[in-house]
Design brief:
Layout lengths: L4 E4 L10 E7 L3 H8 E2 L10 E9 L2 E11 L10 E7 L3 H12 L3 E2 L4 H8 L5 H11 L4 H11 L4 H23 L9 H19 L2 H9 L1 E7 L5 H9 L17 E7 L2 E7 L9 H16 L2 E7 L6 H9 L5 E6 L18 E3 L8 H11 L16 H22 L4 H19 L5 H8 L7
Parallel strand pairs: 1-7, 8-10, 8-11, 11-12, 12-13
Antiparallel strand pairs: 1-2, 2-6, 3-4, 4-5, 5-6, 9-10
Helix pairs in contact: 4-5, 6-7, 6-14, 7-13, 13-14
């Protein structure tokens, strides 16, 4: 018999949050709700109706709350679900959860509610992964991409491609089993169908980088000599005083982080310590961390001082960032025009700003977007945005289809065709969950929070 699970379904923050929700799902959910929730008057326990009352433990008042009952199959998990809407904070919801567990519920595992929704056919695996993406979205565009996944816009083309391959496989296997009763297999038709599927798989696979960018974001390191205005740039860009700004070189001793959204892309900006030779042990540690940040960043902003122009130290920093995408940011152009500077031909991407006066920041963002996939990610482009697991399965699909083509070219028997065709079908089934192992499910749902 399926166990009844319970968990806190909302974030718990001390002295914050007006409402906290404890969720139950399973055959005993309604019974547990009736045991601990007392609804005054003649309120009727109907599905999808909210009740007002008190949560009690043997007559002792725990909280004043609302109860929402959703009977199977009209619930997220397609099981009986009860939600107890309590006061927020820490103590109320924790006491209510403990009471549910004493009544016979089991504490849910991470993602177990969504796992049950998948196992009970409420959603497919792409939709389940989109639930996690929506919870963890760090920009409006990332959230929209997750909503697109929730609507099944990835699952539909994947299922269609899988159906096409199953049709090809059926035609091939029919010729193996009933060779004397059927006309010869149209080899040209098979090749054309495989080519079409492979092309469409490649089109979906091309969204992998975009999906990863929306989910993980972009890591940008701001590097430069001491006192060129790196911290002023971070403060102006983030519209906050994240970094201390003074006229003294070496003020920033460690890497300062700030999270931004640029053109729909989550961005983690790292303001690094000014890189120079120093005898100060603390500053030496900061400089070393700055070097590491520059090497690990997706994009480097090399900030120089327009008053000082291009120096040997700037050239050394440019050489340090070799191999990383880089934008030259010329700061303090309010004090000296760029036209007066003798700059090297490289790097080609350069932006003029005056961070102290909030000038040039829009140009900087446009330069960043131009360096990412040669343009901005627009909402209209977000029909599909696959994740790494889905990309791996699509790659396996393409490899299997390529092997089928080679098998056909080598005029091998039809039995050999079916081996790789089945592998391609299996790989596509792993994306939607039609063919998936328990270990894959464990890997996917372990990323979820408890209560989701």
């Amino acid at each position: 018999m399926t166990e009844t699970i319970a968990a806190i379904a909302t974030a718990i923050v001390p002295q914050q949050g007006s409402v906290g929700i404890v969720r139950l799902s399973g055959p005993q959910a309604e019974a547990i709700g009736r045991a601990i929730f007392k609804a005054p008057g003649q309120q009727v326990w109907e599905s999808h109706r909210i009740l007002y009352g008190q949560i009690q433990d043997n007559g002792h008042l725990i909280d004043e709350a609302l109860l929402l009952l959703m009977r199977a199959p009209r619930s997220f998990t397609r099981e009986d679900v009860v939600e107890l809407h309590c006061h927020g904070g820490i103590m109320a919801v924790q006491q209510v959860l403990a009471l549910c567990l004493r009544q016979g519920a089991r504490l849910a595992q991470p993602g177990e509610f969504t796992l049950r929704a998948f196992l009970n056919g409420r959603i497919d695996l792409t939709q389940a992964e989109s639930v996690a993406d929506l919870v963890g979205a760090r920009s409006p565009q990332a959230a929209q991409a997750a909503v697109v996944g929730l609507q099944g816009k990835l699952a539909h083309p994947i299922r269609q491609l899988r159906a096409n391959l199953l049709e090809i496989l059926a035609e091939v296997e029919a010729r193996i089993d009933f060779a004397d009763d059927l006309p010869p297999l149209d080899e040209c038709w098979v090749v054309a169908q495989i080519e079409q599927v492979s092309t469409e798989v490649g089109q979906i696979l091309s969204t992998a980088d975009r999906g990863e960018l929306l989910r993980s974001g972009l890591k940008i390191a701001i590097i430069g000599r001491p006192n060129v205005g790196k911290s002023s740039l971070l403060n102006a860009w983030s519209r906050s005083e994240r970094a201390i700004v003074t006229d003294l070189p070496g003020t920033t001793r460690d890497v300062v982080e700030s999270s931004l959204v640029v053109g729909g892309i989550p961005v983690q900006v790292l303001d690094t310590a000014g890189i120079r030779s120093t005898e100060d042990r603390v500053e030496q540690i900061g400089v070393e961390r700055s070097r590491q940040a520059a090497q690990n960043a997706d994009l480097v902003l090399l900030v120089i001082d327009a008053q000082a122009g291009w120096t040997e130290a700037d050239q050394a920093l440019y050489d340090l960032a070799a191999g990383r995408p880089l934008i030259l940011v010329i700061n303090k152009t309010d004090l000296r025009p760029v036209t007066e500077l003798a700059l090297p031909p490289e790097p080609e991407s350069r932006v003029s700003i005056a961070a102290a006066h909030n000038r040039g920041l829009e140009d900087l963002e446009q330069a960043i977007l131009a360096s990412v996939n040669s343009g901005q990610l627009q909402a209209a482009d977000l029909d599909l945005a696959i994740n790494q697991r889905q990309a791996a399965a699509l790659t396996h699909t393409q490899q299997a289809l390529q092997q089928v083509r080679e098998t056909i070219q080598q005029q091998l028997p039809l039995d050999f065709w079916t081996i790789d065709l089945r592998q391609a079908v299996r790989a596509l089934g792993e994306i939607t969950g039609e063919e998936v192992t328990e270990s894959v499910l464990d890997q996917i749902f372990s990323r979820f929070c408890i209560g989701k």
